[in-house]
Design goal:
By secondary structure, the protein is of the alpha+beta class. It folds into two domains: about 120 residues, Alpha-Beta Complex (Penicillin-binding protein 2a (Domain 2)); about 70 residues, Penicillin-binding protein 2a (Domain 2) (Alpha-Beta Complex). Helix content is about 45%, strand content about 20%. The strands form three sheets. A four-stranded mixed sheet has the order 7-3-2-10, with no helix packed on it. Helix 3 packs across helix 4. The longest helix has 29 residues. The protein is elongated, with a radius of gyration of 30 Å.
Length: about 230
C-alpha cells in the first residue's frame, strides 16, 4: 500500500519548521536575552583590564631638597601553580624555605598566580637564585624608605602595597599616591599572548611631593642629644 505523499511532505515541513523555531529561540537567547552574559564572557577571554600605579611621591624637609621618605624597590617572588614545570622540586623547596607558601600551594594548585613572599630579604633572594627553580619568578615592587627613623611618628609608614597607614603618609595618601592609569590588554586566543592597546582606558596622574616645615638637620641633632641624655640618666 502506497503512503500518501502529501502526508510525508507535511511531516517533513513540520519537522523543519520545528528546527527553524529552535534556531530562532537559540538566536534570541544568544543575541537578545543573554547578550550581556556572552559579551562579558568574550571580553574575559580576549581582554584584561590592568592597573598601572605611578611611583609614590617623596616627602621632603623644609629645604625641599633633603628627602624624609623616598621610594626603594623591593623584590617579591611568585609562581603560577597551574603551570608548574617541576612541581615536585618546587614543593620540596618551599617546604624547606617558605613553609607558609608551601601550605598555600598545597591548597591552591589550580590557581594562575600565587605570591611566595613579598619584600624578600637579601638572604631569601639569594636562596631563590641558588635554587635555579624555573617556576619561581622575581618581581620588582615599589617600597618606602625613611631617612630619619626618629621622625616615624610624624611621617608614618606605608603597608606592603605602599598605602599610607598613619602620619603624613596616611593624611596625604591620595596626594602622594596619585591616580592609577587603567588600560586594556588584549590576548591572542590561540597562544595566550598579551599586548598593550594603544589607547589607555583611563589616564592616571603622578603623585605630588610634599614639603614639611621640619628641619632634618636640627631633628637629627635634637634626637642625638636626647638619646645621649637618656643614656646618662640611665
Amino acid at each position: 500500500m502506497n503512503s500518501n505523499p502529501n502526508a510525508r511532505i507535511i511531516i517533513l515541513f513540520f519537522f523543519f519548521f520545528v528546527l527553524y523555531l529552535l534556531v530562532l529561540v537559540n538566536l534570541y537567547l544568544i543575541q537578545i536575552s543573554r547578550s550581556p552574559f556572552f559579551k562579558a564572557l568574550a571580553h574575559q577571554q580576549y581582554s584584561m583590564t590592568v592597573t598601572s600605579t605611578p611611583p609614590r611621591a617623596e616627602i621632603f624637609d623644609r629645604t625641599g631638597i633633603k628627602p624624609l621618605a623616598l621610594n626603594k624597590d623591593s623584590f617579591s617572588a611568585f609562581i603560577t601553580p597551574s603551570r608548574l614545570e617541576d612541581e615536585e622540586g618546587i614543593m620540596l623547596f618551599l617546604k624547606k624555605h617558605f613553609n607558609n607558601a608551601f601550605k598555600r600551594l598545597t591548597k591552591n594548585k589550580k590557581n594562575h598566580f600565587m605570591y611566595i613572599k613579598r619584600r624578600l630579604s637579601p638572604h631569601e633572594i639569594e636562596l631563590i637564585k641558588q635554587s635555579a627553580q624555573p617556576d619561581i619568578k622575581l618581581l620588582k615592587e615599589p617600597g618606602r624608605f625613611y631617612t630619619i627613623p626618629s621622625l616615624g611618628p610624624v611621617i608614618g609608614i606605608t603597608d606592603i602595597d605602599n598605602k599610607g597607614l598613619f602620619g603624613i603618609e596616611k593624611v596625604y595618601d591620595s596626594t602622594l599616591a596619585g591616580k592609577p592609569a587603567t588600560f586594556l590588554l588584549e590576548r591572542d586566543a590561540r597562544f595566550g599572548n598579551f599586548y598593550f592597546k594603544r589607547q589607555t582606558k583611563e589616564e592616571g596622574t603622578q603623585g605630588a611631593p610634599i614639603t614639611l616645615t621640619i628641619d632634618s638637620v636640627l631633628q637629627f641633632l635634637a634626637y642625638e642629644e636626647l638619646k645621649e641624655y637618656v643614656k646618662q640618666i640611665g
